[in-house]
Structure formats: C-alpha cells, structure tokens
Fold this sequence. Notes:
By secondary structure, the chain is an all-beta fold. The chain has a single domain (about 5-294), classed as 6 Propeller (Neuraminidase), CATH 2.120.10. The chain has one helix at about 250-260, and strands at about 20-30, 35-40, 45-50, 60-65, 70-75, 80-85, 90-95, 105-110, 115-120, 125-130, 135-140, 145-150, 160-165, 170-175, 175-185, 190-195, 200-205, 210-220, 225-230, 235-240, 240-245, 265, 275-280, 285-294. Strand 19 and strand 20 (about 235-240) form a beta hairpin. The chain is globular. The relative contact order is 0.14.
Amino acid sequence: MRLSLLLTGLLTTAAQAAMPQFDLYLADVSQGAIRSAQLISPKAAYINQPTFSKDGSRLYYTLEQTEDKTDIGYYQLSDRQHGVLAKTSLSEYSPTLLADGSGLSTVVVEADGSQRLWKIDWHGKASLLNAEVKGVGYHAWGAQNSALLFILGDKEDNHTMRYLAPNGSLTVLATNVGRGISWREGGKVAAFVTQQQGESRLTFFASDANKLYPTQLALPKGGQDLLWLTADQLLVSAGQRIYRLQSSGESLSQWAENAKGWQPYLDLSAWCKTEVSRFAFNSTATQLAFVCKK
C-alpha cells in the first residue's frame, strides 16, 4: 500500500485497499448558524480536503478517480457543475491556494512512492514545486512562501511538523504531531496539533520570532482539523460539530492563557450522522464546505 493512504488519516494494511468514502456538503452560514446545506458530492468515492478559490466561485477538493488514484476536482458554484482541474498519471491530494494566485499546490504521490509538493496551474499543467522535501503529508502556506509541513515518519508517533522558511531552510518543530495545521491571517502565526500525554493539544508557532508556544489546550475528543476564522477565533471539527476557541492577547502566551475553552459553534448533525472531517470557509465566512465520513 502506498504512503498516500496515510493522507486519509488512516493507518491501514494492503488488504484494505479501498479508500474511505465521504460526502461533501456546501452550506450557507449566517450569524453563526447553518441556514441551509446541500450534498454536492459528484459520486460515491473518496472526496475530501475542500478549499475555496479566493473569490469563492469554485470549491476544489481531492477526488478518487479509480481505486487508489486521485486528482484535484472542482465544483463551480454558479452552475453547480463539477470538473477536474488536471488528470495525471499520479495521485494528487491536499489542494491549497498559492499566495501569488497562479494555481494550487498539492501533495503528489510519485511513481516511486515519494510524496512531494507540486503545483497545478489554472490550465491544469502540473509541475514540481519543491524537489528537496519528501514525505509531505499535509502543508499550509504562511507569509513570504514559508510553509508548515507535516512530514510522514516510519510510524505514527514519528510524524514531524517542519517549518520551511522563505530562504528554503527546513527546521523540525515537533515530533508526534497530528494533521491539523492553520495559519492566522497574515501568515506569521500558526496553530498545529501535537500529541501530548494521550491528548491532542494545540501548539502555536510564531515565524517572525521562530518560536514555539506549546499549550495545555486539549482539542475536543476526535478533533484534528484546524482553521483560524479570525485573529481571535480558532475552529476545529470533532464528531458532528465544529467547535470554536475564542481568546485575545498581545502575545501568543497571553492568547493561550486567556482562552476560555472550546465551545460548540456549528451543529452539523442534521446532515452528518457519523463525523465531520475537513472543512473550509469562503473568504467572507458565508459559505462552509465540509465532508462527512460515510
């Protein structure tokens, strides 16, 4: 089994070749509540990792095309039509907007099993983005082309979070990490998940100071996927809900100290009877895309 299956958040064996299936929903959000939601999955398949275009007109996602083979698909909101941005012989995961607006970055599983960052431009042309860093599972871009990278280890507690600086240097920040990564607006402060004493906890990273801020802030049970909604609101999906952590402070240590604990933010149980995985908001936070495990 290729390493790409680790991207699904599962550790599996060769006997379990089928990729897990998810439903993809698009919801309208107003004043902290779901006003309506619709199932938009194009077919029964592995469909995950949604992300909106900058203007919110398209939703990109990872889509299983054939068994254990994925491409980057999209949903055009104006005409409710699905398409595929690029069909390649390789598998692409984790579509992420590039800051310069030239396309998407993706994690590509190459023919020899290497997992590296590639770029897919808006015409569907795929090219290698970073040749040096291998074993990438997940990634998130910060300021000045910096990035946080989840790098696969030989076993689950050896996965590492690494910082790719604007000058190209790579630094290991933490070991035994989860897949959740999110940069606050401006791309200089990030949150990611570390496993500590049997709990998933938040760790903050300030890129300007190149400093880590581990915290005792445990995520709700089952929570992994993070998203900064605003500078004072951090979200996580867990079970059938999205939870919110609100706080404030001049420094990250103050922010963590002032946090009041995770509170229910959006209840998705009317549409998801199992558990919510990845989710994304458009730039105005008026639309939410989320996936529900079948």
